[in-house]
Amino acid sequence: MEGLLSDSQPFLPKHSATRRKDEMNHDETLQSEEETTDQDQDTMTREGLDRRNVWEPSVYYALGKESFYFVGQEINIRESTDSYGALIWPGAIALSQFLENNQQQMNLMDKAVLELGAGTGLLSIVASLLGAWVTATDLPDILSNLSFNLRRNTKGRSRYIPQAAALSWGQGLERDFPFPSYDYVLAADVVYHHDFLEELLNTMLHFCRPGRGTTLLWANKVRFQSDLSFTERFKSTFNTTLLAEVPQENVWIYKATAKE
Predict the structure, then answer these.
(1) Nearest to residue 249, comparing CAs of 213, 219, 226?
(2) pLDDT in tens, 102-137
(3) Helix 90-101 and helix 122-129: axis angle, to 10°?
(4) What pLDDT sits at residue 79?
(5) Which residues pair with 69 in a beta bridge?
(6) Closest by alpha carbon to 96, among 206, 189, 27?
(7) Over the stretch 172-225, which tens digit does the pLDDT of each residue have?
(8) CA distances (Å), origin 257, targets 127, 131, 141, 143, 178
(9) Which of the residues 135, 162, 213, 216 could staple to 256 if both were Cys, CB 3.0 to 4.6 A apart?
(10) Are 176 and 206 in contact (CB under 8 A)?
(11) For residue 195, what pLDDT is reported?
(12) Cβ-contact 125, 150 below 8 angstroms
């Protein structure tokens, strides 16, 4: 994709006066990068605090709870502003709607489904209500709220009881998930301004190995330059198809399979 930032050039030794000038320029660059990082984090924080305005009136917000209506069921999600993983993001809503509206194309009935970065659990809940056997994964400190939301919204409603499991991208994959065999891997808004994009891509590859027939469905809102860079790497790594776009939210939904 045009306009992506290029990698920095390697440092070459120079005379002291020139080197001092380069060091000053380098310090200014680092300061600029730090300012950019702070701006990106501020953007995510503002977006998180403004979740109450997303896609009204299908979503309403009150006292840390958002309510949805999918698959003929009201879904009540407890969230928190303490971490990004405890908030609902546009990608999860978009992919949930896509799965509900395209059940013949993406039939989850009796399918084994794993979600990466499940957060509050909305997408895993919808997949469970659509008949899937779901494993929702996220960081250990996210699991308590995730498990709570899974239980309260699927008990007595779903064909299978969804499970929550700890997963740190790129860590302990062979130990904790040595023989992954899932029909679908779901991921929503897992790409934003963080330092684990390489680990995320490796985790996607781990669960979507050639010959397993696993389909990856990834929905993401494009916010930063790093999102576009990751998307290009994603496209070069997997066989990808753009399934849908949500222009008002700048969300893309991709289907991907492993390259042989």
Answers:
(1) 219
(2) 999 999 999 999 999 999 999 999 999 999 999 999
(3) 10
(4) 76
(5) 74
(6) 189
(7) 999 999 999 999 999 999 998 778 999 999 999 999 999 999 999 999 999 888
(8) 19, 22, 30, 28, 19
(9) 216
(10) no
(11) 84
(12) yes
Joined together, the tokens standing for residue 169 give: 């991208």
Whether residue 63 contacts residue 102, with contact meaning beta carbons closer than 8 Å, is answered with no
DSSP 250: T
When pLDDT is cut at 50, 70 and 90, the band that residue 260 belongs to is confident
Q: Which of 100, 70, 58, 120 is nearest to 248 (CA)?
A: 58
| Residues 148-164 pLDDT 10s | 999 999 999 999 999 99
Q: CB count, 10 Å around CB of 243? A: 17
How far, in Å, CA of 15 to CA of 17, rounded? 6
Average pLDDT over residues 11-31: 38
Judge whether 145 and 166 are in contact, CB under 8 Å: no
Sheet holding 215-221, edge to edge: 163-166, 133-138, 112-116, 184-188, 215-221, 251-258, 238-246
Question: What residues contact 152, with CB distance under 8 A and at least 6 apart?
Answer: 76, 78
Q: Which helix (H) or strand (E) holds 45?
A: helix 16-49
CA-to-CA distance for 35 and 165, rounded, in angstroms? 35
